[in-house]
Specification:
Layout: H1 2-8, H2 13-43
């Protein structure tokens, strides 16, 4: 996956590294802002017990 992204992104190595960092930051922010809260509400992990 990393090599596919590396070949797809335009620019030299320095620009590609910056673009990959921006993509990584955006993915992490999307996960924390929308995906993880949705998962917490949907599956209600804090209400489960193991007996």
């Amino acid at each position: 996956m990393y090599s596919a992204l590396w070949r797809f992104l335009p620019g030299g190595p320095a620009l590609k590294i910056v673009q990959l960092l921006v993509i990584l930051i955006v993915v992490v922010l999307v996960l924390f802002d929308w995906v993880f809260p949705w998962l917490a509400e949907t599956f209600l992990v804090e209400d489960s017990t193991v007996e």
